[in-house]
Amino acid sequence: HYPLRRQRQMCIRDRWSGKAVLGFRPEDGAIVDAGGGMFDAQVYAAELTGDVTLVTVVLGEDTLSVKMPKEYDVDFDSNVGVQVSPERCFLFEADGGDRIDAAIQGPAPAV
Predict the structure, then answer these.
(1) CA angle 5, 34, 64 (to 5 degrees)
(2) Buried b (16+ CB within 10 A) or exposed e, 48-61
(3) Which residues have C-beta within 8 Å of that of residue 16, sequence separation ≥ 6?
(4) Tens-place pLDDT, residues 5-15
(5) What is the pTM of this model?
(6) For residues 63 and 44, is the Cβ–Cβ distance under 8 A?
(7) Nearest to residue 41, comparing CAs of 60, 22, 54, 66?
(8) Contact by Cβ (8 Å): 15, 87
(9) What are the backbone dihedrals phi and psi of residue 37, each rounded to the nearest 5 degrees, phi first?
(10) What are phi and psi of 45, to 5 degrees?
């Protein structure tokens, strides 16, 4: 669980009640020390691709990739944190995969 700002939480709860999947672009994430990010994951691979190192991590049964500077070095199977700004995240319907964050942007309803 990653705490969103209170206004964004209210906006999401009031406008979306289904299951959602959180996603972000690899260039918007960063690998940090375990316990210091949005969530922890285990390093599966790190590949120098020219101008960046593409780090693939495992979170539960899923994998995701984060672009790091080309000098970044990490041991496989290391536990790391993954940090990403909530403003750079996207929400998708868990069942259909449609993007839903457009429906939750904007001011929170008056309470």
Answers:
(1) 75
(2) eeeebbbbbbeeee
(3) 91, 100, 103, 104
(4) 444 444 555 56
(5) 0.74
(6) yes
(7) 60
(8) no
(9) -120, -165
(10) -160, 155
